[in-house]
Design goal:
This protein folds into 2 domains: 92 residues, no CATH class; 34 residues, no CATH class. It contains 5 helices and 2 strands; from the N terminus they run H-H-H-E-E-H-H. The chain has 129 residues and is mainly α. It is rod-shaped.
Length: 129
């Protein structure tokens, strides 16, 4: 499926990435295996071949979407945990931290730095020192 012009996984204008293609191929393989396990011979025997093929494709796509949704949920949880660690390490540090641009502008200031300079962290943004 990957590589066709009308393939939603490879829209026009996006170059083909071998690792991306490999990911989708593996995802498709896993979904195919799960879809085969869901087949019901007694129901499938009653349906014409084309209807069985379309039903199989729908099952595979549904399983792929469920797998991708689970991966996204897991990635979001990891990002939230990472963000909480960042907050603890940066914002609540006992030392004042300033993140500066190359031009010397304050991009971020933690709570300790703001307290040391007797102002709110948001007020320090984009000041140069």
């Amino acid at each position: 499926m990957s590589g066709r012009k009308d393939d939603p996984k490879n829209p026009p204008g996006l170059s083909s990435d071998p690792s991306r293609d490999q990911y989708f191929a593996q995802l498709r393989g896993r979904a195919e295996r799960e879809a085969r396990a869901l087949k019901s011979p007694e129901i499938d025997a009653q349906w014409p071949a084309e209807a069985r093929r379309v039903l199989h494709e729908l099952r595979v796509h549904q399983i792929e979407l469920e797998m991708q949704n689970e991966e996204l949920r897991s990635a979001r949880e990891q990002l939230e945990a990472s963000r909480a660690r960042y907050f603890d390490l940066y914002e609540l540090a006992p030392v004042g931290y300033l993140t500066l641009s190359k031009a010397g502008l304050i991009l971020e200031a933690n709570l300790t730095a703001a307290n040391m300079l007797a102002c709110q962290a948001a007020a320090l943004r984009f000041h140069s020192w």
